[in-house]
Specification:
cell membrane; 10 helices; mainly alpha; about 210 residues; transmembrane helix; membrane; transmembrane
């Protein structure tokens, strides 16, 4: 359900987009650096889950309807920023004694998975990206509907994104491994992640979201 003539251009464009630093990359990299590879892997799967949901919404045309409503986009932006600020505040106010032990990584990994899913779904720019990007590679030469083609394109995008994020986790997690055993770093571990969430919130609030009508 993907036009093979357009596939090389699509793959090249996706790779270029993945290499551009963004909020998803920042969240996944900082999670891996602060809490280890397992947490970074879960954050990567959280990002992939939200990407899959956005792909389905784009294929069904739901995301286009939302993207054409300026009020809906603004509500998403404010809710997303508020959620990130809440996560940042929870991390900042936690004490050093609450820094997670390695044995607590399972619970922490699940928490970062949920945060990655929600933060991306509440980012209106992510929704608009799927609305504007995928249709460019829908071909009139195929018998498959535009919705079916967008679904296939979105799935390929998410698979490539997940592979890239897992590679990022492996690299950052390896570099950051000594920090996990550093008592001084662990004292500021949660504060560091709190700062990341604040940065993401400011990033979202400062971004200009345009409707596509």
């Amino acid at each position: 359900m993907i036009d093979l003539a357009l596939l090389p251009l699509y793959l090249t464009t996706v790779i270029a987009l993945l290499l551009i630093p963004g909020p998803d990359m920042l969240l996944i990299a900082s999670s891996s650096l602060s809490y280890g590879k397992k947490v970074g892997v879960y954050a990567s799967f959280g990002n992939a889950t939200s990407g899959l949901i956005l792909t389905l919404l784009a294929a069904m045309g739901v995301s286009a309807v939302i993207a054409m409503n300026p009020m809906a986009l603004e509500v998403l932006r404010v809710l997303g920023a508020a959620y990130l600020l809440k996560m940042g505040w929870d991390c900042i106010r936690s004490s050093a004694a609450e820094a997670p032990e390695i044995s607590q990584q399972n619970n922490l990994a699940k928490l970062l998975y949920k945060r990655a899913v929600v933060s991306n779904l509440l980012n209106p720019k992510a929704l608009i990206f799927f609305v504007l990007f995928l249709p460019q590679f829908v071909s009139t030469q195929l018998t498959a509907s535009s919705g079916e083609q967008m679904l296939a394109l979105g799935l390929l995008l998410n698979v490539m994104g997940l592979a890239f994020n897992l590679l990022l986790v492996a690299l950052v997690g390896t570099v950051g491994k000594p920090l996990l055993n550093n008592e001084k770093f662990r004292t500021y571990q949660n504060k560091f992640m709190g700062g990341i969430f604040f940065i993401l919130a400011i990033w979202l609030l400062a971004s200009q979201v345009q409707n596509i009508s």
